[in-house]
Design a protein that fits this description.
The chain is an alpha+beta fold. It folds into two domains: 4-118, D-amino Acid Aminotransferase, Chain A, domain 1; 124-281, Alpha-Beta Barrel (D-amino Acid Aminotransferase, Chain A, domain 2). Helices cover 30% and strands 26% of the residues. It is built from eight helices and 14 strands. It has helices spanning 24-28, 46-59, 68-81, 124-129, 152-163, 208-219, 231-236, 267-281; strands spanning 4-7, 10-13, 31-39, 42-43, 87-94, 111-118, 131-137, 168-172, 185-189, 195-197, 224-226, 239-244, 248-255, 258-259. A hairpin with a 2-residue loop joins β3 and β4. The chain is globular, with a radius of gyration of 19 Å. The chain starts with a strand and ends with a helix. The relative contact order is 0.13. The protein binds 4'-deoxy-4'-aminopyridoxal-5'-phosphate (PMP). The site of 4'-deoxy-4'-aminopyridoxal-5'-phosphate (PMP) has 14 residues, from α6 and β12.
């Protein structure tokens, strides 16, 4: 069945879904995006994703391509037309199409694309066995809080991880601090079961899953601390894990080939995964 995409005011089949070669997203990566999980046909944490989209657009001085309410309608319509039950919806807004020039012509209207993808059941082995990560230098710009479509360092990092049979690459800044993964937020758990993750500042993307997991951890009586942690600290942690919209909560059992804890997913991570799963499924 052909997939239906929303492209600048029209619902079109995948083969006809196209933007101008002068779109600034294509020419300059001048745009932002959101990925929202869909469970039983309903977007999960939609308002939080819209709030972050608002921050990203505002930081880049790109106007909303339509009202927030209208975007909610478009998201629902794309899901309906694609019969998406479980999967994700992708929203990309760029500064629009204009003759190529760094300077943006006055009155350029933003572009908007919304697509939906189905996803099958999760790979149970990931929860049972955990995954490995590698570390790489964080070579990104100083506004990683903006969910920009300019993702070259993340893409190169993810490819390196794949070549090295790792699930993801955790990015390390000049002070030996792990900022985050290429598509995930990074966490550790210390020997007192304190859950630690990098503060939500300009050095990381403030993940929606990160925020929800923080709340669920606190509800579950865990101490959550937002502070930077080093590679050495992560290797010596009792547990490590990562979070994202598409991966939920993933246990990390090795960092650069060094075992974390006893090399198996730990109870804190498992508990948070269960709580997050319940949050997504509403059970
Ligand atoms: N950090 C980066 C760099 C990411 O790309 C993502 C996923 N888009 C995340 C963190 C996790 O964010 P979220 O929980 O909102 O998916």
């Amino acid at each position: 069945m052909a997939r239906i995409a929303y492209v600048n005011g029209r619902y079109v089949t995948g083969d006809l879904a196209a933007v101008s070669i002068e779109d600034r997203g294509y020419q300059f990566a001048d745009g932002v995006y959101e990925v929202i999980w869909v469970q039983q046909g309903k977007p999960v944490d939609l308002e939080r994703h819209f709030d972050r989209l608002d921050c990203s657009l505002d930081s880049l001085n790109i106007p909303w391509p339509m009202s927030r309410r209208a975007l909610g309608v478009v998201v629902g319509e794309v899901l309906r037309r694609n019969f998406t039950r479980n999967g994700h919806v992708y929203i990309q807004a760029t500064r629009g199409a204009a003759r190529r020039n760094h300077l943006v012509p006055e009155g350029t209207a933003p572009s908007l694309v919304v697509t939906a993808s189905r996803e099958g059941p999760r790979d149970a082995a990931i929860q049972d066995q955990g995954v490995g990560v590698i570390t790489i230098p964080d070579i990104r710009w100083k506004r990683c809080d903006i969910k920009s479509i300019a993702l070259l360092p993340n893409i190169l990092g993810k490819q390196k991880a794949s070549r090295e049979k790792a699930f993801d690459a955790w990015q390390v800044n000049g002070h030996d601090i792990i900022t985050e993964g290429t598509t995930t937020n990074a966490w550790i758990v210390d020997e007192k079961d304190e859950v630690i993750t990098h503060p939500a500042n300009h050095h990381i993307l403030s993940g929606i899953t990160r925020r929800v997991v923080m709340e669920l951890a606190e509800e579950g009586g865990l101490q959550v601390t937002e502070r930077p942690f080093t590679v050495a600290e992560a290797r010596a942690a009792s547990e490590a894990f990562m979070t994202s919209t598409t991966n939920y909560v993933v246990p990390v059992v090795s960092i650069d080939g060094h075992k974390v804890g006893d090399g198996r997913p730990g109870p804190v991570t498992r508990g948070l995964y269960e709580r997050y799963l319940a949050h997504v499924t509403g059970e």
